């Protein structure tokens, strides 16, 4: 869910996409908590929660465009904001927070600047889990066709 931003009709993160408040939770207490929480699910537990956070982050076109910008090269927060003139800085930072919670972006403070880097591991995990199996099956089918 999202709503229209103040500038340029771009979408801003909906309330459920925003960073959680500092009240409660293992993260607020200083404990390490994977992106998306630790709720156990029937399909696989904590790993599913991390994948849910990645899918949620990738579901928004603005966040996908932010990842495209970071794929080109690491950027500072200011540089990333400059790539989205239709969005105010607060909106860009809200989207960035969703990407960081999904561990798709890594922020590192250097002096007064924050340097942002794309973290490809969560996307590779999704690829290996969801796309890799289908690709292997497709290659196997093509191999069977060439043998007939």
């Amino acid at each position: 869910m999202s709503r229209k931003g103040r500038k340029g009709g771009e979408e801003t993160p909906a309330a459920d996409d925003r960073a959680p408040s500092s009240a409660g939770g293992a993260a607020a207490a200083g404990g390490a908590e994977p992106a998306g929480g630790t709720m156990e699910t029937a399909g696989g537990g904590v790993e599913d929660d991390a994948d849910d956070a990645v899918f949620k982050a990738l579901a928004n076109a603005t966040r996908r465009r932010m990842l495209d910008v970071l794929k080109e090269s690491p950027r500072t927060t200011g540089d990333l904001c400059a790539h989205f003139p239709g969005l105010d800085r607060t909106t860009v930072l809200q989207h960035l927070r969703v990407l960081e919670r999904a561990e798709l972006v890594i922020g590192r403070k250097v002096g007064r600047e924050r340097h942002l880097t794309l973290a490809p591991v969560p996307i590779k995990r999704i690829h290996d889990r969801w796309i890799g199996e289908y690709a292997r099956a497709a290659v196997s089918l093509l191999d069977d066709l060439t043998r007939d």
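Confidence is low (pLDDT under 50) at residues 4-8, 19-41. The two ends are 49 Å apart (CA to CA).
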